[in-house]
């Protein structure tokens, strides 16, 4: 089959972007042809055997035919602080026209059997204008967008009425979607996110050498890590409050990612007088694998989280996760994989981190990595997605 994948975000820097990339790579492995349409504001490398058709937006690089503003997001993105709610009516129309043109081009040139779009949002609705079976994956931030403004309600309702199948990535997402919109249970299916096991796996890295790559000149005994966007909903401030309690000379706290709150969080760390906290910015997935592997624990302190791809990436490397008890996180974490805490409760979070560091709570890293490989590898779920494609194509 030929599958046209569409996303509102680049293939790096967001969960849905990584999801789209992983789906594409798995489909190609299975012998299918893939084209991806997505926004970009920088020149990117090609993906082997996958056709990429970026729609360019303005940021630091000057690129031919780019829109005069940065691509919009729901809660900001590492490569853009612009949001859908910031767009003027003129910019919104330019955004729609740019993608409508590209989708039309690929419908004619690539001639897909299926369109698989991401987010119950603007671009997915544009894809309903073609007589091609449509699957949409809901990632959670789209529901945040629905609840923040009714500006796009007409488009979203049209999309829901015309799409053949909606994939949700967690039980919480599935329940929220069916609670918010009537009569869509038959269209909705739960297929959790998967991870790329060729990138994330357990390996015994030399911690000192990893520190050198990160320009960290001290060999800390313990590492506590956060990976994700630096935005309010991700709760990085909760981790910093916890770090002000558990901190010691032998514990390093790593904050990996970028976002609109970067400077505010750095200032907060100074005010709390947190020792040994390093803001690393964005890192490649290969570097993330090394960071996960040298960490004692990875913390996911989100206030809201549709799924939590970082959770399974960390676990795939054998590293336990302490995550807030919200959204899709409790679907994944059990007592053999990590610890759940109530969001905002930084005192309990600090105690949980200290318990892991002090070996008061012990996890089997080999069990963790094998469990996640057996249950969350992208290759495990791709056949379910392909089965959906086949059924709606047949209809």
What attributes characterize this protein structure?
alpha/beta, six-stranded parallel β-sheet, single chain, Rossmann fold, seven-stranded parallel β-sheet, 395 residues, globular, 15 helices
Strand content: 15-25%
CATH topology of the largest domain: Rossmann fold
Q: Output the structural class.
A: alpha/beta
Helix content: 40-55%
The topology string of helices and strands comes to EHEEHEHEHHEHEHEHEHEHEHEHEHHH
CATH class of the largest domain: Alpha Beta
Uncertain runs = none
Shape: globular
CATH homologous superfamily classification of the largest domain: Glycogen Phosphorylase B
Mean pLDDT: 93
Tally of individual domains: 2
Biggest sheet descriptor: 7 strands, parallel
Q: Using DSSP, what is the number of strands?
A: 13
Cα separation of the termini: 15 Å
Round the Cα radius of gyration to an integer and report it: 21 Å
Named at the architecture level, the CATH assignment of the largest domain is 3-Layer(aba) Sandwich
Count of individual helical segments: 15
Q: In what order do the strands lie side by side in the largest sheet? A: 3-2-1-4-5-6-7
